[in-house]
Amino acid sequence: MSEPKHGSSQRGGIPVVVSFQDPSTGQEFTVSNDGDHGERITTAWTGRDIGVPCPRGRPHAYRFVDDLQAGRRGLGWPNFAVFLIYVGLVVYAAIDWGWPWALIGFGVPWTMSGLWHLPQGERAASRRIEALSSQPPVPGRVVTVLTDTTVDDSEGHTLTSHTPVITFTTHEGATVTAYRPDGLADPVNSQGRDVTIHYTPDDPAVFTTDLAAERRSRPLDITVGIVAPLVGAAAGVLGAALL
Question: Which of 90, 124, 144, 222 suits a disulfide with 106, CB 3.0-4.6 Å?
């Protein structure tokens, strides 16, 4: 593992060297993430487990997966796509065909989904804050700032983004290098800045440089979670009133 060069692009990820075993033959390979090999590695430390799936019998067609749970979460994205199609059909039926039942068909499932996810989101946020606060913070430092420039084809505007890269050493002795795309003031001139890092002991990839901001974001998240089922309930009530 090495630190990205100052001013380079953030698209390639943090340079790492990873060893993995081909499950079909048991042969071990040592590879790097140079070039196009799946997801970017945005947080790394020596000894971190990184997913390296590959087709059976084709270990050289490996792909990096930053999240070890990727691909194990069932049909989340396909279900979300189906839900978007469902919403589109409901809106079309309600407006173009004048079907009040379509609003009820949308409002009831949306409301139930919102009510089901609201406490789960609250518990997840609470666990995150508790984990980040469970031990004293450690010092960190911005070692470099990555720069990317893109051109908006529609209007011709040039957009420049700056991604600070920080390093910190955990209480357990792991030296972590990670992108910090947001949360730092004046990221362009942040190279060399000392920062304070709160991280979760079980996974240093979950960290923050501003624990107070994490706490402040909770009321907003709760508000958004409450608004979602209210929108569904309003759609259902409107549909019932138009029957």
Answer: 90
Contact predicate 207/200, CB 8 Å: yes
Residue 75 and residue 62: Cα distance in Å, rounded? 23
Are the CB atoms for 170 and 159 separated by under 8 Å?
Answer: no
Q: What is the dihedral of CA 37, 40, 42, 46, to 10 degrees?
A: -10
Q: How far apart are CA 171 and CA 204, in angstroms?
A: 10
Take residue 232 and report the two structure tokens written for it.
Answer: 């569904």
Rounded mean pLDDT for each run of 10 residues along the chain, 243 residues in total = 80 87 84 79 90 81 72 51 68 65 70 72 81 93 92 76 94 93 87 94 91 76 70 73 69
Sign of the C-alpha dihedral computed for residues 168, 174, 177 and 182 taken in this order: negative
DSSP secondary structure, 152-171, as one string: -TTT--EEEEEEEEEEEE-T
E strands present in the chain: 17-21, 28-32, 43-44, 138-151, 158-169, 175-179, 194-200, 203-208
The pLDDT of residue 52 is 84
What separation in angstroms does the CA of 157 have from each of 11, 76, 78, 161, 214? 20, 35, 34, 13, 33
Distances (CA, A) of 194 to 141, 152, 165, 237: 4, 34, 12, 54
> Buried b vs exposed e over 83-103: b needs ≥16 C-beta within 10 Å?
eeeeeeebeebbeeeebeebb
Structure tokens at 26: 């048991």
Rg value, the chain, Cα: 23
pLDDT at 71: 43
Alpha-carbon gap, residue 119 to 216, rounded angstroms = 18
Closest of 49, 48, 50, 30 to residue 40, by C-alpha: 50
